[in-house]
Each structure stands twice: as C-alpha cells, then as structure tokens.
Amino acid sequence: MIDKCLFPVAGYGTRFLPATKSMPKEMLPIVNKPLVQYGVEEAINAGMTNIAFITGRGKRAIADHFDISYELEHQIKGTGKEEYLTEIREVLDQGTFSFTRQREMKGLGHAILTGETLIGDNAFGVVLSDDLCVNQDGDGVMAQMAELYKQFRCSIVAIMEVPMEDVHKYGVIAGESMKDGLYRVDDMVEKPNQEDAPSNLAIIGRYILTPDIFDILRETPPGKGGEIQITDALLVQAKKGCVMAYKFEGKRFDCGSVDGFVEATNYCYENIYNK
Ligand code: G1P
Q1: How much distance in Å is there from the Cα of 55 to the middle of ligand 1?
Q2: Which ligand 1 atom minimizes the distance to the CA of 224?
Q3: Of 18, 151, 194, 263, whose CB neighbour count within 10 A is largest?
Q4: C-alpha torsion 102→104→110→115, nearest 10
C-alpha cells in the first residue's frame, strides 16, 4: 500500500573523517555491504519499492551503487564471483531509484520537504540509514510499521527506550499507551535536556508520514540547532490529528557513531554475513 520510501542522505558524516572525505558515509560497509543498502533492503521488503534519495554534493557513489555496472557485470559473468552480486542485483530488480538534491543543510525536516517532488500525495516511509535495524525473528521495522499504518492511517514513528543520559541525542515522545508498545503521541521534543525530556522513549530513524506533513513543514520555523525539525512538524500533526509511536521489534545500531558502527559490524559478521 505504501510504495515510496525517502532516504535523506545529504549529511556530511564528519564523525567518520577522514573516511568520509571523498566517500559518502552511507557507502561505508558494514562487513561487505554499504550501510545504505541495508536500509534500502528493509524498505523494499516492506513493499516500498520506489526509493527516493535526498542527496547532496559528493554523493554520486550512492547513485552508481543502485545502478548496473556494465563493466563489472561483463568482467565477472560466468565466473564464481557472480554470486557476490546476487543481493544487489535483487535490489536493482525490485526497486526504482530516484534522486533529488538538497542544496543547503537546513535539517531533517527540510530534507524531507525537499523530497516532496519525488513523493507526491501519498503516505510514505522515511529511513535514516545511519540507524541500522535488524530483526532476524520476523519482519523488518519498516514492514512492521507499514502493517500498523493499515490500521491507523496516520503518521507513525519508531521508538525505543534509551537511558535518560542519552535523551539529548534524540527526538523524544510522550503519549498515551494504547496497547503494548504502541502510544498515541501527545508531546514530542527534539533533543531535550534530561530535565526537559517528557520520557525516555526516543525516536529512531524510521517514520511513516502522511503527505499533509509537507504543508506543515513549509510553515515550521527552525527549531533545535537552528534547523527545520521533523519532530516539530510531527508535533503539529499530533495536536491536529494523530501520530502513533511504535516500539519496534528487533535491534537497532546507531551507525552514526563509531561505537555503534563497530557494534553493528560485529553483529552482522557473526549473525548475518554468510548465513
Ligand atoms: C534525527 C532526528 C531525531 C531522531 C534521530 C534518530 O536526529 O532529528 O529526532 O531521534 O534522527 O536517529 P539526528 O540523529 O539526525 O541528529
């Protein structure tokens, strides 16, 4: 039902310099697969086969990755190495990939608004590929959320409990518990101090958004850090109508930090690679 997914990938990846000096951070490999491909596979497995990237300068490697490499295909055709291309070939067969550029870094809300031209007037997914999510026991996080959307037909954010000393790194929600792991949001704050946080339920980089978010984003003033925040726009939506927050099933690694990246690498090497 939801067939489009937005990938904001314009960020600089400064925490990974010098590796990200001339290479997009989204192309850093977790074992043998670029970080962004994990997110794209998760979206495609949720039926979101129209993948829309919000890119920026220096990100062409992402567009090349989601395209045929004729030279490579020709070189290894009929050799034992062909199997290494199986997964990316499947992704290319199933998905379509479009790109638009965010010319200025004005925040996640601004990146999502830039994607309006690729999305149109339907509900859509958003994946922040820095957050690597795996669920080996069942559906991926996006598929879990797409299923919920069928029931609630409103924007949904994925959340997890974090220690209070970490709330300043996240958008944080408060809400009325509907049933196990599902909340109807009534407050939302972007990167609060511990004292101002309405809870320890942190938003992670998976969203389903209804398209009225674009009009709200157009009117959203810069918030935390002087940037246009999706969290602020979602609070408007929550107040006007409904936003749900969902404690997903599975693991999430913060691959925007070096520690999380190494943890994800170890986990994927031990549990996913060659399995
Ligand atoms: C963004 C959002 C934040 C969310 C986080 C999840 O922040 O603004 O609300 O909790 O992603 O990873 P960023 O990490 O891009 O600063």
Answers
A1: 17
A2: 8
A3: 263
A4: -10
pTM of the model: 0.96
Distance (angstroms) between ligand 1 centre and the Cα of 78 equals 44
Q: Is the C-beta atom of 170 inside 6 A of ligand 1?
A: yes
Question: 256 C-alpha to center of ligand 1: Å?
Answer: 10
Query: Could you identify the residue written with the tokens 């957050």?
Result: 131
Q: Which residue is closest in CA terms to ligand 1's atom 7?
A: 170
Residues 6+ away with beta carbon under 8 Å from 243? 154, 155, 156, 157, 184, 185, 188, 234, 235, 237
* pLDDT value for 82: 87
- Is pLDDT above 80 for 274? no
- Taking residues 12-24, what's their average pLDDT? 92
* 51/127 Cα distance (integer angstroms): 10
Residue 180 has a pLDDT of 84
Distance from the CA of 96 to the center of ligand 1, in angstroms?
26
Q: State the pLDDT confidence band at 70, using cuts at 50, 70 and 90.
A: confident
What would the pLDDT profile of 22-36 be if each residue is shown by its tens digit? 999 999 999 999 999
Mean pLDDT for 51-73 is 93
Q: What is the pLDDT of residues 193-217, one digit of tens each?
A: 999 999 999 999 999 999 999 999 9
> Residue ranges per domain, the chain?
4-273
The atom number, within ligand 1, closest to the CA of 108 reads 8
